[in-house]
Prior knowledge:
There is one protein chain. The chain is α/β, with parallel strands linked by helices. 38% of the residues lie in helices and 17% in strands. The protein has two domains: 3-55 and 340-441, Aspartate Aminotransferase, domain 1 (Alpha-Beta Complex), CATH 3.90.1150.10; 63-336, Aspartate Aminotransferase, domain 2 (3-Layer(aba) Sandwich), CATH 3.40.640.10. It has helices spanning 3-6, 18-21, 48-51, 60-72, 85-97, 112-129, 150-155, 190-208, 234-245, 266-269, 297-304, 323-336, 341-362, 392-404, 426-441, and strands at 27-31, 34-37, 42-45, 103-109, 137-141, 172-175, 213-218, 248-252, 276-279, 291-296, 366-372, 375-383, 388-389, 407-408, 410-412, 415-418. The protein has a seven-stranded mixed β-sheet with strand order 4-10-9-8-7-5-6, sandwiched between helices. Strands 11, 12, 13, 15 and 16 form a five-stranded antiparallel β-sheet that branches. This is Aspartate aminotransferase family protein.
Amino acid sequence: MTTQQALNYWQPMTHPVSTRDKPPITIVAAEGVEITDAQGHRTLDALGGLWNVILGYSCQPIKIAIAEALDRLPYYSSFTGVATENAIELSHVLGQWFSDDGLLRTFYTSGGSDSVETALRLARQFHKIRGDKDRYKFISLKKGYHGTHFGGASINGNAKFRRNYEPLLAGCYQIAAPYEYRNPFNETDPEKLAQLCANMLEDEINFQGADTVAAFIMEPVLGAGGVIVPHSSFMPMVREICDRYGVLLIADEVITAFGRTGAWTGSRLWNTQPDLMCTAKGISNGYFPFGATMIGEKVVDTFETNTNSLGEIGHGYTYSGHPVGAAAALATLKQLQTVNLPENAAARGSQLRAGLDQLQETYECVGNVRGVGLMQVLEIVSNSESKMPMSKTLMNSIFETTYQEGVMVRVSGNNIIMSPPLVIDSDHVAKIISALDRGLQAI
Ligand SMILES: Cc1ncc(COP(=O)(O)O)c(C=O)c1O
């Protein structure tokens, strides 16, 4: 591909003119946990696509299920009065899959941003059905990432995804995230920090007026915002506060559902049951754009006992419950039962973490190492005392060398994020560490 051809393509999260100087790395094939670019260079994909390819690239049963579904029924709508077999069957399977999270019903989407938008809308509607018409506000965490729809951007906790699109949705407020390395309290004890952030949530609910707040949304482990792992007490405290004030708890598990943290869901990792859960990505192993917002008992009861038009769902997508996507998800869930995915994510995550800790001991520029299971991050700084973020140029050079050494990682700001497929083995982990070692040496 030439630079000229690439100019036609405005890529997500990219300045359109950046391709003038440098066309994107063009990925042409993938096998197992490796990807191959147009120059024939093979790299271990320590990103798992974009957190989503949890079973790797060679999962035949999912590919076959997609091909068969495409052949049998390439599309039909799920709007009012019709549905497809695959979508119905999958909702039953998902109801069982998420029963330990207290989630019973499924609303299908085409991806993570759609799942978040769905949860936000259902949360507002839930309160309207109950006569709490003023409860429209949302509270979320700074550093949280909830996709790029206007709803998701409005609850997003990173200015980069907000500033150029303002004004955003009214009634959205953010509190500090339990991020030990940098927080407004200068608190380094994770448990105390969790308490301070929970206090902030309660304070914000009271400040807004509890009767105006519809929901609090959080990722059980913050992903794109820099893999921030709250103390185990945080989400249970949040649940308790939400209950006390009649606020719904939405878990955005677009990344954390399906095993990435070492538990099947992030909510389960923290022993918390949310009222709504956003899922996507791993649900179809990234092979088909698909998502599901799962709905908990309280919300289900409110909608299903309603008898007027307030309970009618005026929301949905052309591709909600796409029969090919549903087939991909059914095959993915079946496949997930045949491998010990969370166990492997936990074991390989510990190995990866030990290697990253070692890198921190070796390189002063590694300011912080964080993560759980197979979502890990190195935060790179130019000065460990001042914690000044490393320059973009040097971050790019870490990326380049690591890529040339055979490992694809994600550089986001001054973070190097790793979210490999959950099926990686110990040799793969060793390769990630040695390539990063070379990458860090290079600066
Ligand atoms: C937690 C979370 N929510 C929502 C989204 C948005 O998902 P999508 O990009 O599929 O719209 C993402 C994407 O990374 C995410 O990590």
